[in-house]
Here is the input.
Amino acid sequence: MDPSTIARHGDALYDAWRERRVISPLLEQAPDITVQDAYSIQLHMVTRRIQAGETIVGKKIGVTSKPIQDFLGVYEPDFGQLTSGMVRTEADGIDLNMLIQPKAEAELAFVLDRDLVGPGITATDVIRATAYVAPCFEIVDSRIRDWKLKIQDTVADNASCGVFLLGDVKGDPRKLDITMAGMVLHKNGELFSTGVGAAVQGSPVNAVVWLANTLGRLGLPFRAGEVILSGSQSALVPVRDGDELTCTIGGLGTCRARFFGRSAL
Here is the structure.
């Protein structure tokens, strides 16, 4: 795909994000688009956000579960860039007016205290470079109409990044069994789903290893202070005005997210 076409699609996704509207799937517009083309479009879209004043604060890993990979016809995860404009806190809550068609995922976040530069990164390297882990919610949000997407669509759309928030609790990954720790998700006080770290590439650490090495081959290091969202341990949760979600990871603690504003689509 030539640079002008990449820029056109990246601009369209950026404008859709800024104006909070959807566009038709990219594969309907360009059936021959490749995953590599899609990452180039993602880079253009994210660059527009950086030019508008945001900064990169981390990365996210998506498409980590086998059912989603089978649905999209891929056999490895994807990734997106987290920007300063995506950060929320438990105290803030999530304003649905700032999103388009959001859904929530519960997962484990890693926060680094040293650079992590692939390739050649191991699980031990990830643990040593991690300052702490925290339960978190990622609110994914697609600019693609009705979530009718394939892997090229979600990659180009910055892995469907919306916003994210970290729980206030912080855990030492050297003292936690993050692979076997159970995750329980409640919606408005009722059990919604359960999960376990092993459902994410065998372990959330493995997902981070994959991304560190993938980015390293692209010349993109993880930097100290960055947040890494390791992949959903829950089913996607539809959210509306007034909803409250809690995610509790065994041995670690709880993250809470409340939602306000218009009803989600």
The mean pLDDT is 93. The two ends are 33 Å apart (CA to CA). Residues 3-19 form the longest helix (17 residues). The helical segments are 3-19, 26-29, 35-51, 66-72, 123-129, 151-156, 204-217.
